[in-house]
Design a protein that fits this description.
- The structure is a single chain.
- With about 260 residues, the protein is of the alpha/beta class.
- It has one domain: Rossmann fold (3-Layer(aba) Sandwich), CATH 3.40.50.
- Helices cover about 45% and strands about 15% of the residues.
- The protein has a seven-stranded mixed sheet, sandwiched between helices.
- Helix 1 crosses helix 12.
- About 45% of the residues are buried.
- It binds adenosine-5'-diphosphate and magnesium ion.
- To B.subtilis soj.
- This is ParA family protein.
């Protein structure tokens, strides 16, 4: 099981889109894919047409179980989607209360890691969509991943946000000895604007080989795909944006060999 966590403390940079796009492409490869939504806004959950207020069990129940997490509870909190090989652990708004309720409880940062270890044979890939907040959910998502994928919007202000995210990663890395690699993904690239090119160049200058050497273009098909509740590669297999995610995926699969 390869776990990739999609994180950035900035909203609207393409986190959920990245998780869904990669998940869709992996599922088409015949891989068994699990998307975990840990964002109380539940965008990924809605993406797959799941009504998060109607659920018997969700990511909230998994985290609430804390140390008492079981394989049975993990499996009960995972729903199939209408797309072959693609399952979702949905989020609910209640996730927003976890930090306050359970944030300081012992072992709380490792719940998802322990839970995933119990169902490691059920899936080939897990993609975790994380809220833009440093809290117990992000700590959990970082604790169990092989690689952190950091979408960064190619515009001037994005670099500041990225520096903050990198400091967060270092902090968690130091305090928990977690060992993950990371890949910065330039997103919402607009080739007509100078800002996109300049930001891309700065990213490379500052973060070098940790930056994927491609970019995800602005492509209106992403919004259309989410309206249709279909992974981008199902909705528009030949779209520029989908081809870009395919090339990113090829790169990631070369880096993280099973
Ligand atoms: P986040 O999860 O970081 O908040 P989203 O993935 O939800 O960001 O993206 C925010 C909005 O931008 C969504 O409406 C999404 O459809 C749109 N979007 C994401 N990536 C692209 C892209 N490459 N081109 C055009 N629109 C995009
Ligand atoms: Mg999101």
């Amino acid at each position: 099981m390869i776990v990739w966590t999609v994180a950035n403390q900035k909203g609207g940079v393409g986190k959920t889109t990245t998780a869904v796009a990669l998940a869709g492409l992996l599922a088409e490869q015949g891989k068994r894919v699990l998307c975990i939504d840990t964002d109380p806004h539940a965008s990924l959950t809605y993406y797959f047409g799941i009504d998060s207020e109607e659920l018997e069990s969700s990511a909230f129940d998994v985290f609430s179980a804390g140390k008492n997490i079981t394989a049975e509870l993990m499996r009960r909190s995972i729903l199939p989607t209408e797309f072959k090989n693609l399952s979702v652990m949905p989020a609910t708004m209640a996730l927003a209360t976890l930090d306050r309720k359970l944030g300081t409880q012992d072992g709380m940062g490792l719940v998802l890691k322990r839970g995933l270890a119990m169902i490691a044979d059920d899936f080939d890939y897990v993609l975790i969509d994380v809220p833009p907040v440093l809290g117990v959910l992000m700590v959990n998502a970082l604790a169990c991943c092989r690689r952190v994928l950091i979408p960064v919007q190619t515009e001037f202000l994005a670099l500041k946000g990225l520096d903050r995210m990198m400091r967060t990663l270092t902090l968690i890395h130091k305090s928990r000895c977690e060992n993950y690699a990371y890949t910065i993904i330039p997103t919402l690239y607009d080739k007509r604007t100078n800002a996109s090119l300049q930001t891309y160049k700065k990213l490379i200058a500052r973060y070098g080989r940790s930056v994927w050497n491609g970019m995800i273009p602005i492509d209106t098909k992403f919004r259309d795909a989410s309206n249709e509740q279909q992974p981008p590669s199902v909705y528009a297999p030949k779209a520029r944006g989908v081809l870009a995610y395919q090339s990113l995926l090829t790169n990631l699969q070369q880096l993280d060999v099973r």
